[in-house]
Amino acid sequence: MNQTAPALRSFPDRLRQIALFELGGLVLITPPFVWASGVPVGDSVLLLAALALIAALWNGTYNTAFDWAEGRLTGRTADRRPTRLRVLHAMGFEGGLLLVSLPLIVLWTGMGWWAALIADIGLALAYMAYAFAFNLYYDRWFPIGVVAGARPGCAAHVE
Q: Is-above-0.70 flag for pTM?
């Protein structure tokens, strides 16, 4: 076990990550949800916005804890996470979110538990693919240890 704790994302960086993720998710996921679920647009937007708020809170908690644990166990920062661990990371995030989102979908839409579970699994699969791609690119565009505005390979980049 590595005794040196690797750098974590700063609080402002984590807030930017969460905000960009949730806004992008709403833009990309709402139209197919409306089409597939038959839930009216207004109800769908409000439901997905409520789920996005819950997910944003879960996102900050889960990612910080996952990054901390990964750093303690491997000495690696999140932006150097291998693909297999990124898949596990995305699955863990969506599995934890499912525990909260399923009852909310049932209550909000009036769907039965099975229909809501199918809708929630569809949302989870869509968001899992989105989370994988988003976090991969976010880590590339905003690596940990970079001075604001600097890019990897320039003098302001800190390794």
A: no
